[in-house]
Design brief:
Keywords: Oxidoreductase. This is SDR family NAD(P)-dependent oxidoreductase. One of its GO terms (molecular function) is oxidoreductase activity. The protein is built from ten helices and ten strands. With 302 residues, the chain is an alpha/beta fold. An eight-stranded mixed sheet has the order 3-2-1-4-5-6-7-8, sandwiched between helices. The chain has two domains: 236 residues, 3-Layer(aba) Sandwich (Rossmann fold); 51 residues.
């Protein structure tokens, strides 16, 4: 008996899917049976755009796809993508927010306009798409949200303040989407991929370019997009066939006992103790972390 494809009967939107990681994800979803709206803005000089080229690849392999050339940050783009997906496929089960820009400027050289542009594309556009897609994802009963973030949003980096800030904001949004989505069967996760792309090519050696083709991202995204995957609220770092989970953790709290001038020495000692701490706690959300800390305070625990 032939096994039904992992994503059979499911429909997806993938933004920034004309090249590199987004293309790899769109092709992977389609290979597992999903119908895919392939979004990528049309660049000057392109005849039909990269989104249409990916659609042709999917169709040539026997899949179903439609192209969308909206710029994700433009007003109405999110609603237009959702409407097109519903009109084309009759349902929407998966949203993969991949489109992004990666400005590289040190803090002193950042401009407000470039920072705002990065947030419009990397953060506000995925938020708008999530909001537009929510009714359809709720109706699905197994809606899946996958946000493409970056280790720059987890750890920062030289020249990555703007880019990292947008991805850190998207990480926090994902965590809230995961919490809110539970009541309607929606799961939300994030991927921090390591792969050859237009953003990363300049930072990679020839050896890394050969070891990290974008197609390694597809299987992870496909599993997170499936109804069979109930994981939610997680960040997975993946590339080249490797995968790890990135976690936000807190140490157990240590106590200082005064607020006077003598408190400074105690605070310094506390920070030294925390630097040496090994046991950490991973919280599901801000309220859980808050209640844990309050509980520690009320119990007098260290």
């Amino acid at each position: 008996m032939n096994q039904e494809p992992l994503l059979a009967g499911r429909s997806a939107i993938v933004t920034g899917a004309g090249k590199s990681i987004g293309r790899a994800i769109a092709l992977a979803l389609a290979s597992h049976g999903a119908r895919v709206l392939v979004n990528n803005r049309r660049h000057a000089g392109e005849s039909d755009g990269s989104a249409a080229a990916v659609v042709r690849e999917i169709e040539a392999a026997g899949g179903i796809a439609v192209a969308n050339t909206d710029s994700v940050e433009q007003a109405g783009a999110a609603e237009a993508m959702v409407e097109q997906a519903l009109a084309s496929f009759g349902s929407l089960d998966i949203v993969i927010a991949n489109a992004g820009v990666a400005p590289e400027k040190r803090i002193a050289g950042m401009t407000q306009s470039s920072l705002r542009e990065a947030f419009e594309i990397n953060y506000f556009a995925p938020v708008a798409l999530t909001q537009a897609a929510l009714p359809a994802l709720r109706a699905s009963g197994s809606g899946r949200l996958v946000y493409i973030i970056s280790n720059a949003g987890l750890y920062g980096g030289d020249g990555l303040a703007a880019y990292g800030s947008t991805k850190a904001a998207l990480y926090a949004f994902m965590r809230s989407a995961a919490t809110e989505g539970r009541r309607s069967g929606i799961a939300a996760n994030a991927l921090a991929p390591f792969a050859l792309s237009q953003m990363t090519a300049a930072r990679m050696t020839d050896e890394l370019r050969g070891a990290l083709p974008a197609h390694w991202i597809g299987p992870v995204a496909s599993w997170l997009a499936s109804a069979a995957c109930s994981t939610s609220g997680k960040v997975y770092v993946t590339g080249g066939g490797l995968i790890s989970e990135a976690r936000m953790e807190e140490t157990a709290p240590v106590r200082f006992t005064t607020t006077g001038t003598q408190a400074i020495a105690e605070v310094c000692q506390c920070l030294d103790d925390l630097a040496a701490a090994e046991a950490c706690i991973n919280f599901d959300g801000a309220m859980e972390a808050f209640l844990h800390t309050i509980g520690q305070h009320l119990s007098g625990g260290d």
